[in-house]
Amino acid sequence: MGYYLKIDISNLQALQMDLLPEMLAIKNFYAFEVTGDLLSAYIKEEDFIVSELDKTVPAGATYSIEKIAEENWNANWENGFSPIRVNNFVAVRASFHPPEKEVDFDLIITPKMSFGTGHHATTYMMLSAMQHIDFFNKSVIDFGAGTGVLAILAEKMGAAEVLAIDNDKWSIENIYENVIINNCTKIEVLHAESIPAGCTANIVLANITMNVLAHSCMAIYNSLVEEGYLLISGIFETDIPAIVNVFNEELFEKIAVYQREKWVSVLFKKA
């Protein structure tokens, strides 16, 4: 059985709350949640080094550590999970919830040590922004797929083929499970750190951290066909200048910026 650690960090100033996730991502923390003035960061137990955390957490901030087993994760999630809905476009619910009425796409997602149910602002924005993209008969890469929710929605919206990529084994298992329960047949799942050379797509979806986005810029660019679309999230509003500098006008045209709480999602078109 694998274990994960949830680190709850409090007493952070606003700027520290914005910058700390990027700093922790470099230390192998892979997901973050902001609830009020509390930042929760998640890391695999085998990747955790307490001295690295102590170096990174600002002076004056405090933290607590909770060890989470897979079974406990799912039990806690089921106890507190409620369906989310993006207008009448898409709903995300668990299998034990009744189907959502008067919604275009009704998705069933059960996370297994994975993130992406639509509750976090970044996933919500990705789901919402996808309604403005034409997926019909398109090829799609979901880079950092998590639960596979974006890949599943892409197929439901008419994508001809979808490649869901993640570097976490729990996520890979979870994507397979969610693909089956949503009756998807056009999603290929790949356990990898990056987009393989030679992969091409009309649309790339990437709900990941700022540093991974920056590191993967050219791989994303090379994977997109001419005038292909890139939709990203996982970044703070303060990251916009930096991310636009990385995905610069020689490579991408910025089409739209979406914001929810302090998080943003950006839609680009390959130049």
SSE layout:
Elements: E1 3-10, H1 14-25, E2 31-35, E3 38-44, H2 50-56, E4 62-69, H3 70-80, E5 84-86, E6 90-93, E7 105-108, H4 121-130, E8 139-143, H5 149-156, E9 161-166, H6 169-181, E10 187-191, E11 201-207, H7 210-215, H8 217-223, E12 224-236, H9 240-246, E13 252-260, E14 263-270
Parallel strand pairs: 6-7, 8-9, 8-11, 9-10, 11-12
Antiparallel strand pairs: 1-3, 1-4, 2-3, 5-6, 12-14, 13-14
The coarse overall form would be: globular
Order of helices and strands: EHEEHEHEEEHEHEHEEHHEHEE
Secondary structure tally: strands? 14
Mean pLDDT: 89
**Unreliable residue stretches:** none
Name of the CATH class of the largest domain: Alpha Beta
Number of helices: 9
Write a compact overview of the structure shown.
The chain has 271 residues and is an alpha/beta fold. The chain has helices at 14-25, 50-56, 70-80, 121-130, 149-156, 169-181, 210-215, 217-223, 240-246; strands spanning 3-10, 31-35, 38-44, 62-69, 84-86, 90-93, 105-108, 139-143, 161-166, 187-191, 201-207, 224-236, 252-260, 263-270.
